[in-house]
Design brief:
It is built from 8 helices and 4 strands; from the N terminus they run αβαβββαααααα. By secondary structure, it is mainly α.
Length: about 250
């Protein structure tokens, strides 16, 4: 027997999805300052694929992009159960919290360090001189550029994702969840993958345009590949949520 729809559980669901969405987005902002080599991680030689102007393309990605597929899944679930209004709500809340974190961390890099803290951390593992305050400031202020770029890319890509998701749904109906989930990601992440790098590392950093294109292409390929591979997880989450709520809820469009 199908139980009646439970509005309290729906509210709890939105809080849970929003918390996962916000936490992953915020962590990605600060972790994303590091670029890592996928080939080294897997113990492989650099790919050195042909690229523009005779350059070679290796698989280098931002650490922040690793957890971004979780944001895709949560965003699609919010789209499915709470409509564009729900996506807009969590997107603007998340953007506000990221901006708040920006202010706090920027202030943290500006305050004078305590002498004992500098003295306790003044050597590196090999015994050489180490300026921990310089390292702290360098890492977090590099993250500031990512935050500025990602806030722009994040809001634009999320709103486009929500629109594309519902546009595809109007065409296909309630069927083909995989198509609207993957299709909206393909469109929105084309913007997100390049805009954030362009602003954070080209306009506000020291990258060349070629480096932006190289890393952006690799990250876009990674995101789309994961979006496709994680499609079964979206169906599993969809089934679990329907069971949790008691029956398939009415979609709140706006």
């Amino acid at each position: 027997m199908i139980t009646d729809y439970n509005p309290t559980r729906k509210q709890q669901l939105f809080i849970l999805l929003s918390s996962i969405f916000l936490t992953n987005a915020l962590v990605a902002e600060f972790a994303g300052v590091k670029i890592f080599s996928l080939e080294k991680l897997l113990g492989l030689m650099p790919a050195q694929l042909p690229f523009f102007n005779g350059q070679k393309l290796d698989f280098n990605l931002s650490v922040g992009v690793i957890i971004w597929p979780l944001v895709f899944i949560v965003s699609d679930l919010v789209n499915e159960y709470f409509g564009r209004a729900g996506v807009r709500k969590i997107s603007f809340i998340t953007a506000g919290m990221i901006a708040w974190a920006f202010v706090i961390v920027l202030s943290g890099t500006a305050v004078p360090p305590a002498e004992f803290w500098l003295n306790l951390n003044n050597t590196d593992p090999s015994g050489g001189h180490f300026d921990i305050n310089f390292a702290y400031t360098s890492i977090f202020r590099a993250g500031m550029g990512i935050i500025v770029g990602s806030l722009t890319a994040f809001l634009v890509s999320q709103l486009i994702d929500a629109y594309a998701f519902h546009y595809i749904k109007r065409i296909t109906g309630s069927k083909k969840l995989w198509l609207r989930a993957t299709g909206s990601t393909v469109i929105s992440q084309l913007i997100d993958s390049f805009v954030i790098l362009f602003i954070a590392f080209y306009l506000l950093g020291n990258w060349s345009m070629q480096q932006v294109l190289q890393v952006g292409l690799v990250q876009y390929t990674y995101k789309i590949s994961l979006a496709i591979l994680l499609t079964p997880l979206i169906y599993l989450a969809h089934w679990a949520i329907d069971k949790y709520l008691g029956k398939k809820p009415f979609i709140e469009n706006s």
